[in-house]
Design a protein that fits this description.
By secondary structure, the chain is an all-alpha fold. It has a single domain, classed as Growth Hormone, Chain: A (Up-down Bundle). Helix content is 82%, strand content 0%. The protein has helices spanning 3-42, 46-73, 76-96, 100-128, 134-160, 165-170, 173-184, 190-195, 199-209, 213-226, 233-239, 241-259, 262-275, 281-309, 311-335, 340-358, 361-371, 378-407, 409-430, 439-447, 466-470. Helix 4 crosses helix 18 and helix 12 runs antiparallel to helix 17. Residues 1-6 and 463-471 have low confidence and may be disordered. Bound molecules: beta-D-glucopyranose (BGC).
């Protein structure tokens, strides 16, 4: 079997699965530009506008919750297909909505789709990619999210001229159809197949995706070993303290990602440009597009480095950069921005912050969350962490403006600076390095009681294997 061909096949499969991220990004990014026109046409109060925005995150949390059991029973592929169908229905619903109720229901359906996609796509990617490029392939998913956000910002800017909000929302139907067709061609996850005792099929998929039959057979053997433990999700969570640790770590990681403050920048970029002294809508829209573009470009840094430098050094670097930028921005807002030089300096600091996020916590948190869970409880563990992402996302989105109003912009940005410092400490204490190590090896360490920050070691020597059974 030709090694290059096989690798290309894997990359294509990963690319198609990562398309789900594009839809996630499009739906996250699109509403900022569409909302003013929707509010005008339906005469919405601020409260109703908040509802139109946040009902999607509510749907996403619920979608993520249902995805665990669903992808466990139906399989990863069928879950992704269902997600794609929901994207199509939700987008068409938004485009034709004639009142706020229909629009809200459609946004809720989109939320369900985003929840399913944000759960299933990284999980599928982590199960299908060979370990040496696993980090890059899951980062590809984050790259798609950022491209989706940027595309939404751009199409909003282009369509805002005529106030075509129905097109802004409706145009997402096309990538959703492409996702559906793309997913139809994907193979099922070999790990899920093995979990369902379909070992022969799992072997076939692995042969298609690996460089040699031997590599495929070795991986299948490892997977068979790890699926012997039959406990599942909630049961495992109740009875196994090691699995509880990895579940809590996943939740913590997603909270860390959201509390960096990046989501605030993505949702409220125009507002932040306004605080920095850019008063016209035109300036704010283009500033937002530049922020989106920076986000996309810097994600490539992560893709290039994640499997070489490892997860932990990049995370520490990213959180440090973000902490410094938040500190400087707080200081600039505190001392007042009074001339164009200071305005542009603030934009540069903001862009460096975005680089810090996009090259680290943006992709790496998704990477880690899908890597740290043991197979028997992976669906449950990833469900919990993905839900945590959406819950934290809702909290952050709903409190930013209130924070600015109550404690002021400088303190708000300093607060985020402090949270980034806390993230550095948490990374040092709890985050494992999972570079170049198989998921089965990580699982072995975790279930043997290795401290969380050491579960990515090749062979963890500190604990005797027989203590695992006792837990
Ligand atoms: C996060 C989003 C964030 C986006 C920005 C994602 O990984 O989950 O909350 O807005 O990255 O690129």
């Amino acid at each position: 079997m030709n090694p290059t061909k096989t690798n290309r096949q894997t990359i294509l499969v990963c690319f198609l699965a990562a398309l789900a991220g594009l839809l996630f990004g499009l739906d996250m990014g699109v509403i900022a530009g569409a909302l003013p026109f929707i509010a005008k046409e339906f005469g919405l109060s601020s409260h109703h506008q908040e509802m139109v925005v946040s009902i999607m995150m509510f749907g996403a949390a619920l979608g993520a919750l249902c995805s665990g059991p669903m992808s466990s029973s139906l399989g990863r592929k069928k879950s992704l297909l269902l997600g794609a169908v929901l994207f199509v229905i939700g987008s068409i619903g938004c485009a034709v909505a004639h009142n706020m109720e229909v629009l809200s229901i459609s946004r809720f359906i989109l939320g369900l789709a985003v929840g399913v996609a944000s759960f299933t796509a990284p999980l599928y990617l982590s199960e299908i990619a060979p370990e040496r490029i696993r980090g890059s392939m899951i980062s590809l998913y984050q790259l798609m999210i950022t491209i989706g956000i940027l595309a939404a910002f751009l199409s909003d800017t282009a369509l805002s001229e005529g106030g075509h909000w129905r097109w802004m929302l409706g145009v997402i139907t096309f990538p959703a159809i492409i996702l559906f067709v793309g997913v139809l061609t994907l193979p099922e996850s070999p790990r899920w197949l093995a979990m369902k005792d379909k070992h022969e099929l799992a072997g076939k998929v692995l042969k298609l995706l690996r460089n040699s039959n031997k590599e495929a057979q070795d991986e299948l053997n490892q997977i068979r070993e790890s699926v012997k433990m039959k406990q599942r999700g909630w049961q495992l969570f109740r009875h196994n303290s090691h699995f509880r640790r990895s579940t809590y770590l996943g939740v913590l990681l997603q909270f860390m990602q959201q509390f960096t403050g990046m989501t605030v920048i993505m949702y409220y970029a125009p507002k932040i440009f306004e605080i920095a002294g850019f008063s016209t809508t035109h300036e704010q829209m283009w500033g937002t597009v530049i922020a989106g573009l920076t986000n996309v470009l810097a994600t490539f840094i992560a893709i290039a480095l994640v499997d070489r430098w490892g997860r932990k050094p990049i995370l520490k670097l990213g959180f440090s950069g973000m902490a410094i930028c938040m500190g400087i921005l707080g200081y600039m807002f505190h001392s007042g921005i009074s001339n164009p030089t200071e305005q542009y300096a603030a934009v540069i600091v903001l862009l460096i912050f975005i680089v810090g996020f996009a090259m680290s916590a943006g992709p790496l948190i998704w990477v880690l969350c899908s890597e740290i869970q043991p197979l028997a409880g992976r669906d449950f563990g990833v469900t919990c962490s993905t839900m945590a992402n959406w819950i934290a996302n809702m909290i952050i989105g709903a409190t930013f403006l209130t924070l600015i109003d109550t404690i002021g912009s400088p303190n708000t940005f300093w607060l985020y600076g402090v949270m980034n410092i806390v993230c550095i400490v948490l990374t040092i204490l709890f985050v494992p390095e999972t570079k170049n190590i198989s998921l089965e090896n990580i699982e072995g360490n975790l279930m043997r009681g290795a401290p969380l920050r050491l579960i990515g070691q090749q062979i963890f020597k500190g604990i005797r294997p027989d203590t695992a059974a006792a837990k």
